[in-house]
Amino acid sequence: MQRLRDKGQAIWVIATIAAATAIVGLTGCNLGPKDDLDKGQQLFTQKCGSCHTLTGAGTNGDIGPNLDYAFKNARASGMDSDTIKGVVEYQIAYARPAATQATDVYMPQDLVTGKDASDVAAYVASVAGVPGIKPPVFAPPQFFATNCGGCHTLAQAGTTGTTGPNLDEALKGMSAQQISQSISDPNATITPGYPANVMPQNFGQTLTPPQLQQLVAYLQQAVGGGGKK
């Protein structure tokens, strides 16, 4: 059954190749801003990883197509990264059912747009289906700086974001369980003065349990030990 589902997902991807190739051909040389692969990885992890498996990003979602499987044969047959990028951009712009026969869940329209969509597509094209690619080594300080530092102040990380609470203050005295919940279910307890639904809701899916545990330990250490385990 899983093989049939994977095959169906791959066909869904391949069905867009002709249209995407036409788009690539019409655009000609890339004269726009250079793609930011680091930002593309960050956006993919936050917005796409809960639904898609992509080894290079360390994500294992199974609602949408497995992107490694979908592009493995295409890459082996000679499809280059520019064409793969065009396919991904087309799929983002013209979202279709994640798996028409297996679920009623649809990929959100305009999940990322503009330069963000280009960065995500370029990142996926750089890693999807690449033979022998390994998942990234999880480093809590780097993960925090990339994914959280834009919104939170944390002195040890050198971040000064103000969209969310100052973690040097907010995390003091919190237990590991409380910090873990604040990451995986951020709306469970809202810090006074800050709105709900601002922090991404899917870190509980994009982070594996060991990664979440490592991130919590890093945050506790960063603010002086935190509370109880």
Short description:
By secondary structure, the chain is mostly helical. The chain has helices at 2-14, 17-27, 37-47, 67-76, 81-93, 114-127, 140-147, 167-170, 176-184, 203-206, 209-222; strands at 53-54, 59-60, 153-154, 159-160.
Structure characterization notes:
With 229 residues, the protein is mainly alpha-helical. The chain has 2 domains: 2-127, Cytochrome c-like domain (Cytochrome Bc1 Complex, Chain D, domain 2); 140-222, Cytochrome c-like domain (Cytochrome Bc1 Complex, Chain D, domain 2), CATH 1.10.760. The chain is built from 11 helices and 4 strands, in the order H-H-H-E-E-H-H-H-H-E-E-H-H-H-H. It has a two-stranded antiparallel ribbon. The chain has a two-stranded antiparallel sheet with strand order 3-4. Helix 5 packs across helix 6. It is elongated and about 55 Å long.
